[in-house]
Write a structure and sequence with these properties.
With 893 residues, the protein is an alpha+beta fold. The protein is 52% helix and 15% strand. It contains 27 helices and 22 strands.
């Protein structure tokens, strides 16, 4: 029930109390019997001394019994451990410089590990915030284009019928609305959910209720669902002041009225990247045949059902789906359905990179431990005579090792306490610098906390590191012969071969680990340079962007095209603005839009992105035109449907890539509401990397924004792309105010397209930054270790150096001797590091781009840098040795 150390402590307290009571009883008993003896002394005539000794003889057995009883309740191990702790604390207090350096070194290593582990714990180790989290699964859709957690109405309605293996099957999607019944419209983060979602994830509603089955049956039209809403607790308090009478009232979201039926409990979190302000019923009809994949689906395995059993059932359902709906795009493309653990799917894109960072920071801790061990070895050299005397007085090797381990663990515990502070600061820095795409960290990193798991990890780390760097000097001292140690002079004690080899080995380990970390850092740097050098397909210089809604219900004007034209004309009149365009899909924004496409009237032969753009959009980004023309103002809703394709789309649908004048159909097979009319291709433009610099351009079809029906703008948002002559904060503010006046809606601050490009490489930048910090720390620690060993070597060999110089050795000879010893260790460390890095960096191939894991120039450059810094670390003590005065050195004993 209780840990052993608590039981031992309680028994120790009991022993002390009992010992005091026994002493008092024994003292009173002896006094009483002595008094009785003295009282009888006059009658018997026995001398007082004889009476005293008789009393001692009489009560001697009782005293021994009491002593034996007291020893029975005493734990010698705890007594000696307490003695070791007190002695160790005195030793550390007597050497404040050594203690401070060792504690700070360990605190940096332990603190860095604590910071990274807290993120790893929140992302990879903590269970889902749901009842029975291991049974929560997410539906996967696998097609020729890949696999992902995508769902369509027609598929979801079939998945909900798999009641034999699954329960609480729920759909969810994160969307954005605007709260419009306030003086200034504001953006609202909303989540569409089906009714089972709340019970699936255990979301507790503090006031009111959730959604009824009738409310869950939406109209099937996007942004037009059951017209009821559940508010988050924070949104309820911040916007409505915590009004307890809010239930039953309505709010206007993007022009639609919603009745508030519930308030969530405080501190409710979801697995989504954004914390929802409002929960709304999913706008899906149970009879919908919509084939567009636009949301996610999750559920819970029934008790006793395994993942394999559920996937076998879904495989049968896939075959039944193809037979029932043979003309759907999914059936023709051969899509298959499956489920996997929801947590595994959420973290699969970051698991390996986080584990790689954890391994890297562990190497930093190993180097810190090696440095601390070297410090203890140097200190142990001066304590060899002390330990030899203790051995001569009867102390065993185990007793001495235990004393040294106690001191090292005290150091590591002090380093861990300081490391907790370093870790807390490091976590905040990680969250401020880290990419926003890291899942499960919560809003503003709220899920990354110093909880009991992190504290347990830190304590475990402290104990392990204390044993690691404390055992080496302990074993080294115990191997030294007491006779030899006592015969050596005080200043030369501990200069044995074993201790010298141990210190040299630790330096070699530090250099080799530093080499591995520096090579990894260099590979990440080269990856980021390679990504930044990729041509994104557009010119980002002097281009700013922002995103606003174009919902007709929210605009001042009745038509979207009129509002767009009004905003463009106002922006064109601003001094400093060259070109203004808009698009529904901004390059490198992280958004995606995949629809089946077909050439002429053929069946779909692939998927492509559907992008609505204004005529000036291509000029604003300077996207090159290879054939045909751009859109013009004459491309209106009443004119002939036209389209522009990129080169990848042209090559996908036409073998020779000549798409000019051909017909293209977007959304082929998705039904009358989503299938675009046949459009004539009037231009071919260059490829733009929409999804990432390290990803190939996707097939894209551009459609004039003026040819999008007004009804399809409901709930839609667009990105404004504005090219300016120069970039300035005042011009950006003026552009923002002009857009706000033209649309009557809040406009987010402008962002440069160069920042958009940098944001697309945020994860690679984050990896490079952390690895640079770890690599620099490893380099500094390794060189400090080498410098310390060489400095100590010079001090220990001062007498020898004096003799050499007295016999005719020159300064250069002494300088070369010391440098050769140090560089030899560095060369051995670099050689081991090359072999280790050659094997380990292969596992980083998935995180690299544009560089091989075993890139020879990178290995050579790191080796030269490391050897150069090692030369500098050796030169300083070597120069000090060359300046030794032979007369003074010969007196050095």
């Amino acid at each position: 029930m209780f840990p052993e150390w608590i039981i031992a402590l309680l028994l120790r307290i009991k022993t002390l109390l009992r010992r005091r009571q026994l002493d008092r009883d024994l003292e009173e008993e002896i006094k009483f019997h002595l008094a009785m003896r003295e009282q009888k002394l006059g009658e018997s005539g026995v001398p007082a001394d004889e009476a005293h000794y008789a009393a001692r003889r009489k009560f001697g057995n009782a005293t021994q019994a009491k002593e034996a009883n007291r020893e029975m309740w005493t734990f010698p191990f705890l007594e000696t451990l307490w003695q070791d702790i007190r002695y160790g604390l005195r030793q550390l207090r007597r050497n404040p410089g050594f203690t401070a350096v060792a504690v700070i070194t360990l605190a940096l290593g332990i603190g860095a590990n604590t910071a990274i582990f807290s993120v790893v714990d929140a992302v990879l180790l903590k269970p889902l915030r749901a009842p029975d989290p291991d049974r929560v699964v997410i539906f996967m859709n696998t097609s020729r284009q890949g696999s992902g957690p995508y769902a369509a109405d027609i598929e979801f309605n079939l998945w909900r019928k798999q009641t034999s293996v699954l329960e609480d099957v729920s759909g969810f999607a994160s969307v954005s609305y605007y709260l419009t019944d306030v003086s200034q419209p504001q953006k609202v983060n909303a989540m569409w959910v089906t009714g089972d979602y709340f019970s699936l994830f255990g979301l507790r509603i503090a006031r009111g209720r959730g959604f009824t089955p009738e409310e869950e049956l939406g109209t099937g039209r996007l942004f037009e669902n059951g017209h009821v809403a559940v508010l988050s607790n924070g949104f309820w308090k911040s916007v409505f002041g915590g009004d307890r009478r809010i239930l039953g009232k309505t709010i206007s979201l993007s022009g639609n009225l919603y009745e508030i039926v519930g308030i969530m409990a405080p501190h409710v979190e979801t697995e989504s990247a954004q914390r929802p302000d409002v929960w709304l019923p999913f706008p899906m009809s149970p009879n919908s045949k919509n084939q567009v994949h636009y949301f996610g689906a999750t559920g819970r395995l029934k008790p006793g059902v395994t993942l394999a059993m559920a996937n076998a059932q879904l495989k049968l359902m896939t075959q039944a789906f193809r037979r029932e709906y043979p003309n759907t795009v999914s059936a023709k493309q051969g899509d298959t359905y499956s489920v996997q653990r929801m947590r595994d799917e959420i973290v699969q894109n970051v698991r390996f990179s986080l584990l790689a960072l954890m391994a890297a920071v562990s190497l930093v801790l190993f180097i810190a431990c090696a440095n601390a061990a070297n410090l203890l070895l140097a200190r142990a050299a001066s304590r060899t005579r002390e330990m030899a005397i203790r051995t001569a007085l009867g102390a065993g090797r185990g007793r001495i090792i235990r004393q040294l381990l106690t001191e090292s663990i005290l150091l590591s515990i002090a380093g861990a306490l300081l490391g907790l502070g370093v870790g807390f600061v490091g976590v905040r820095a990680l969250l401020s610098l880290g990419p926003s795409t890291i899942p499960r960290i919560g809003s503003d990193g709220s899920n990354v906390t110093m909880d009991w798991r992190v504290l347990s990890f830190t304590i475990f780390l402290a104990l392990i590191t204390g044993v690691i760097f404390g055992l080496i000097p302990g074993l080294s001292i115990c191997r030294t012969s007491p006779d030899a140690a006592l015969s050596e002079s005080t200043n030369r004690a501990g200069t044995g071969v074993l201790q010298a080899k141990a210190r040299s080995s630790l330096v070699v380990i530090e250099v080799s680990l530093a080499f591995v970390l520096l090579v990894t850092t260099a590979l990440f740097i080269r990856t980021l340079v390679a990504l930044r050098s990729i041509d994104p397909g557009f010119d980002a210089h002097n281009v700013v962007t922002t995103r606003t809604p174009l919902d007709p219900k929210l605009l001042k004007t009745s038509k979207v095209d009129r509002a767009v034209q009004n905003a463009i004309e106002r922006l064109d009149d601003l001094p400093g603005v060259e070109t203004v365009g808009l698009t529904t899909l901004l390059p490198l924004s992280g958004e995606f839009n995949r629809l089946p496409v077909a050439a002429n009237a053929e069946a779909p032969r692939g998927f492509g992105s559907e992008v609505f753009a204004s005529p000036a959009y291509f000029a604003a980004l300077k996207i090159p035109l290879f054939r045909g023309r751009f859109f013009t103002q004459s491309d209106r809703l009443v004119s002939a449907p036209v389209a522009i394709v990129n080169q990848t789309m042209a090559r996908q649908l036409w073998r020779n890539g000549d798409a000019m004048g051909e017909q293209i159909i977007v959304g082929k097979g998705l039904g009358a509401r989503l299938e675009q009319p046949s459009r004539q291709i009037v231009g071919i433009v260059g490829d733009v990397r929409e999804n990432g610099l390290n990803l190939a351009p996707q097939p894209t079809v551009f459609i004039p924004s003026a040819q999008r029906p007004g009804i399809r703008w409901a709930g839609a948002s667009v990105s404004w792309v504005i090219r300016t002559r120069t970039q300035s904060a005042s011009l950006n503010t003026e552009i923002q105010n002009t857009l706000r006046q033209a649309t009557g809606l809040p406009v987010p601050p402008l962002q440069s397209m160069e920042d958009v490009i940098a944001h697309s490489t945020q994860r690679q930048s984050f990896n490079m930054l952390l690895m640079s910090i770890f690599g620099a720390s490893a380099l500094v620690l390794a060189m400090v270790g080498l410098y310390g060993v060489m400095s100590y070597l010079v001090i220990q060999r001062t007498h020898e150096i004096g003799i050499r110089m007295a016999l005719g050795a020159q300064n250069g000879d002494v300088l070369g001797m010391v440098i050769r010893n140090g560089i030899k260790l560095a060369f051995i460390g670099v050689g081991i590091g090359i072999a280790a890095a050659f094997g380990l960096t292969r596992f980083l191939a998935s995180l690299l781009y544009g560089v091989k894991p075993t890139d020879p120039p990178t290995f050579i450059a790191v080796a030269l840098i490391l050897l150069g810094v090692a030369l500098l670390a050796c030169y300083i003590p070597a120069r000090r040795a060359a300046k030794v005065d032979p007369i003074v050195a010969l007196r050095h004993e």
